[in-house]
Every structure is written in C-alpha cells, then in structure tokens.
Amino acid sequence: MVDKIKMEIDRIEVDHTKVDDRGPLDLTRQVDETDKRIKELDNSLSIALEINDKFQRENKKLTDKVRRAEAMRRPLDTMDEIAYRELEKENADLKYDNKSLAKQVEDKVEEVKALKKKLEELDSNKD
Fold first, then answer.
1. In three state form, how does the secondary structure of the chain look?
2. What is the pTM of this model?
3. Alpha-carbon distance 35 to 115, whole Å?
4. Domain boundaries, the chain
C-alpha cells in the first residue's frame, strides 16, 4: 500500500505556482472558511454582549426606579398609577429581552466552541 502511494506521488508532478482548488472538499478551503465563520461569530458575539450589557444597565435603572416607587408607597392617583404600571411592564419586558439576549449569547458561545473544536479536528487531520 505504501509503495503504491509512493508510486502515485512520483507519478504526479506538482506545479506549486498553480492554485490547487479541489472544490468544497479542499481542507485548506474548509479551514479558511471555518476561520472566516469563527471571526464572524466572534463579531456577532461581541455585538450581542454589548447589547446585553446595555439592556442590563437599562434594566438596573428601571429596577431602581421601581424600587423607589415601591418604597414611597403613597396613595397613587390615577395618572401615577398608570405610570407605575407602565414602568412595571417596561421592566418586565426588559427582563424578558435580557433573558432572550443571554440565551442568544450562550448559543453563540456554544457555536463558536463547536467551530473551534471542528477546526482543531481539521488541523489534527491535516497533519
């Protein structure tokens, strides 16, 4: 088997000036595409983390507002009661958005880890 492979290698002349494109099964192409995808995912993750951080800060501000409003617990007239309910709803919405963004971030992190593992496997198979 080894002799057969050596004979095949000897038979093939390789011109290193030409681009050897083996199509979608080319490991070099797969590694390059995987690297590109990892960079895209890292960028997406960075954006998602920034958005998540922004929503967490906004959520904290609204939570603090709600706490102050609850601490006051004075008799509310109709307009104050409506505003308070709106703040409660907005706070609940932001908590939901924050959970959703955290899930998206977690999914992206897992996707990046899987791609890195696949890249490592490709690199180890290349050797």
1. CHHHHHHHHHHCCCCCCCCCCCHHHCHHHHHHHHHHHHHHHHHHHHHHHHHHHHHHHHHHHHHHHHHHHHHHCCCCCHHHHHHHHHHHHHHHHHHHHHHHHHHHHHHHHHHHHHHHHHHHHHHHHHC
2. 0.35
3. 9
4. 28-126
CATH topology for the 28-126 domain: Helix Hairpins (1.10.287)
Cα dist from 41 to 2, 35, 59, 107, whole Å? 42, 10, 26, 11
> What is the residue-level pLDDT of the chain in tens, covering all 127 positions?
656 665 666 665 454 445 566 666 778 888 989 999 999 999 999 999 999 999 999 999 999 998 888 777 665 567 777 888 899 999 999 999 899 999 999 999 999 999 899 888 888 887 6
